[in-house]
Design a protein that fits this description.
Helices cover 41% and strands 10% of the residues. It has 498 residues and is an alpha/beta fold. The strands form two sheets. The protein has a ten-stranded mixed beta sheet with strand order 1-4-3-2-5-9-7-10-8-12, sandwiched between helices. Strands 6-11 form a two-stranded antiparallel ribbon.
Length: 498
């Protein structure tokens, strides 16, 4: 009898052990899917027929997907390449400063509109941005500058296949990809993000004495975005031969933006309105965030009262399920945004509201450069919040003023990226919403004039930043940022050897 009891207990223990092992395997597999790089998951999505139907057939070539790299994530792709070869290629392209299609569309003039596009690895979004640019009126009079922090031949081929305007590529040379085991990438001796100061000092890890304001240590994938933006702006205004005398407007876009066909028309309209109504407006803005969550209610509550308890529970569950499906980007064509009498707003510039489709010229850049130390020393890994800090602390000067479209001409289509990781990153869902919005608003595009309204901004806009978001406490990041402003000087600490 005791033997039988022991055998039963042993059987139960073995079964429980196997069950726990199965649960652990399933969780690991699930986490593997959830933790997959957001860029990779997004790039697995084909462009839907619904989206293609609204794209002119001659532009489908920019949406052609090549499957050679989708089986591995971005980290594995970087390690599979020869870093020395990538460094040499980047140096060669940056020195050449080649402008593609210049023989067709003519040289860059001092008043040519420059469209600077910051590119990482989200190829699907980039394809759709290019398609939207291709459909814009007067795009052939611009220069597209694609600024990359990841060297990839498929991305390069896509960019160099553009045939509707002048194109240049610049490559951020201090990326994680080109410095995989050293700063500005991840050095093996870097302090772990969440290690305490006392423990970091004992470990003698890099920058142990300088955590950020929240007590954390640097994460290269986050600091790179601010470095890249700052390098790109310095490169365009201070270092390219074709922009040496440039006095025109520079439009700042990102790979997951999408433009309306009349965005250049609106840019000129904003500029002329600013000259007339707001000469002190330094920044123009073509994008406005219209992210809304729509919750539709079903019916008359009086009818619900007549339902049984079980029916009410079922109805509530169905409503909750439907709401979760609807909790996606929902763009609406608000009548007062797109109409015969379109409005632009003059207001204090705020980073989280006016960082999309932002436009300024060399005069504003010089104002920024006067306070470059504030930008580089501010403990915030976001370039836009660093600019906001700079704006709010200009000696004897007001904050930056912006004039923006109430009806946006630049949209954010990025469901996934550095800050947002989802397992269902479907680019087509969001893109189709933007396409439909623009189709519905088509009759109101290219307005002949706009009405300017002046706004003091809300409490959020005028709230003084007391401290940053952190992530920028490492002295090395601050030095690298500062060194980028030194024109015609090699960065002796961080320059790579070709």
């Amino acid at each position: 009898m005791p033997r039988l009891k022991y055998a039963s207990v042993l059987r139960v223990v073995v079964i429980l052990g196997l069950f726990c092992l199965w649960v652990q395997i399933m969780l690991s597999a699930s986490n593997g899917v959830i933790d997959r790089d957001g860029d990779e998951l997004m790039n697995l999505n084909d462009t839907s027929e619904q989206v293609l139907a609204l794209v002119p057939p001659e532009l489908h070539k920019y949406l052609t997907v090549h499957y050679k790299n989708i089986t591995v994530n971005s980290t594995e792709r970087a390690n599979a390449k020869n870093v020395s070869d990538i460094r040499r290629a980047i140096q060669r392209y940056n020195e050449a400063q080649t402008i593609y299609n210049e023989d067709i569309f003519g040289p860059v003039q001092n008043d040519t509109i420059i469209i600077a596009i910051q590119v990482h690895t989200r190829l699907t979004y980039l394809r759709h941005l290019i398609v939207s640019l291709a459909q814009a009126r007067d795009i052939d009079k611009t220069l597209l500058v694609f600024s990359h922090d990841y060297y990839d031949e498929e991305i390069n081929s896509l960019v160099r296949s553009i045939d509707f305007t002048k194109v240049m590529q610049i490559f951020y040379p201090y990326s994680i990809q080109t410095h995989p085991n050293e700063f500005p990438g991840v050095d093996p001796n870097d302090c772990p993000r969440d290690v305490r100061l006392e423990q970091a000092i004992k470990l003698k890890c890099n920058n142990a004495h300088h955590p950020d304001l929240h007590g954390h240590y640097r994460e290269a994938k986050y600091t790179q975005t601010k470095h890249h933006w700052w390098w790109k702006a310095n490169r365009i205004f201070n270092q390219l031969q074709c922009t040496a005398g440039h006095t025109g407007m520079v439009v700042f876009l990102e790979e997951d933006h999408y433009v309306a066909e009349d965005f250049i028309h609106m840019l000129h309209l904003l500029r002329s309105t600013a000259d007339r109504s707001c000469p002190h407006c330094e920044i123009l803005c073509l994008g406005t965030y219209l992210k809304t969550y729509q919750y539709h209610t079903n019916g008359d509550k009086r009818k619900q009262l007549s339902l049984s308890y079980i029916q009410q529970v079922r109805a509530a569950n169905e409503e909750r399920r439907r709401k979760m499906q609807d909790m996606q980007w929902n763009y609406q064509v608000y009548p007062y945004l797109y109409s015969s009498n379109q409005k632009v707003e003059i207001t204090p510039w705020h980073s989280s509201m006016h960082n999309m489709g932002m436009v300024f010229n060399r005069t504003v850049w010089k104002n920024i450069m006067e306070l470059q130390e504030q930008f580089c020393a501010y403990d915030d890994y976001n370039w836009d919040y660093s600019l906001l800090h700079l704006s709010q602390n200009r000696p004897k000067r007001d904050k930056f003023k912006v004039i923006l479209c109430k009806g946006p001409r630049v949209f954010h289509i990025g469901e996934c990226g550095i800050h947002h990781k989802k397992s269902n990153c479907n680019a087509s869902t969001v893109i189709s919403k933007v396409q439909k919005l623009l189709q519905n608003a088509k009759s109101y595009m290219y307005p002949s004039r706009v009405s300017a309204i002046v706004s003091a901004g809300g409490a959020k806009h005028n709230k003084k930043l007391t401290k940053g978001n952190g992530g920028w406490g490492d002295i090395r990041d601050q030095e690298l940022c500062t060194n980028m402003t030194k024109v015609d000087r090699q960065m002796r600490k961080y320059i790579y050897v070709a």
